[in-house]
Amino acid sequence: MKTLGREFYNRDSLIVAQELLGKVLVHEINGQKLSAKIVEAEAYMGITDRAAHSFGGRRTSRVEVMYGGPGFAYVFLVYGMYHCFNIVTREAGNPQAVLIRAAEPIGGLDSIAQNRFKKTYDQLSKSQIKNLTNGPGKLCRALLIDKSLNGEDLCGNKLYVEAGENEKFDIVASKRVGVDYAEEARNYLWRFYIGDNEYVSVK
DNA sequence: CTACGGATTTTCT
DNA sequence: GAAAATCCGTAGT
Question: In A 14-53, which Cβ lie closer than 7 Å to strand B?
């Protein structure tokens, strides 16, 4: 399977977020490949986007990686407990990113099940299967993504995105989640998801 | 099914 | 000191 290269990410988040749908996020750890198909992503457009951490050119140690080049991981902690995984887009100095909100487990299912519920995959209830990776915090816990991966190069061989099958699906655009504080930006339709996928966090 | 509050810590004011 | 790009358990309908 082909790994997405630097130029894929060197475009506006609005484009990259939509094109990431259906692609496969892979984390190689402890000699295993944990992978999941991306089914939901949000675009954060940087300086002019009131919902973005880099709004107005804000530049702190947390957001620093967003100011670097495209194709790197931006991982941060929200609500003191959960990690969110983003991919930095656009060239250095243009601090955009795409938040990966949800995915469908593909590979390393038993490890993913252990990471979330301390069970093997076939011990999971139906609702537990659905809740493996249907949200940004859950996805990070399932794939063992934490702040140690902040700044990781996605054009490497540890954490990367593969071009998935060339399947067809409907892309739905809707409001981003959890950004009610963002005044006018909270209504932008900058969240994209695969229409009929059961792992989407909010329909 | 929906509604609510607590967890927990980094970050910024 | 408050809020945060969230999740989960509990209680009520």
Answer: none
Q: Is the CB of A83 under 7 A from strand C?
A: no
HSE-up of A107 (CA within 13 Å, CB side)? Answer: 13
CATH 3.40.50.1220 fits A6-194, yes or no: no
Look up residue A137 and give its DSSP letter: H
- Give the Cα separation of A67 and A64 in Å (integer): 5
Report the protein residue whose CA lies nearest the C1' of nucleotide B10.
A80
Helix (H, G, I), strand (E, B) or coil at A194: strand
d(CA A78, CA A75): 10
Which tens digits make up the pLDDT trace of A158-179? Answer: 999 999 888 899 999 999 999 9
Separation between the CA of A14 and the C1’ of B3 (whole angstroms):
33
State pLDDT tens for residues A114-135: 999 999 999 999 999 999 999 9
A80 touches strand B (CB under 7 A): yes
**CA proximity to A45, closest of A156, A189, A201, A168:** A189
Give the CA A11 to C1' B3 distance in Å: 40
A107 touches strand C (CB under 7 A): no
Q: Which of A25, A47, A145, A42 is nearest to A99 (CA)?
A: A42
Q: Is this model's pTM higher than 0.85 or not?
A: yes
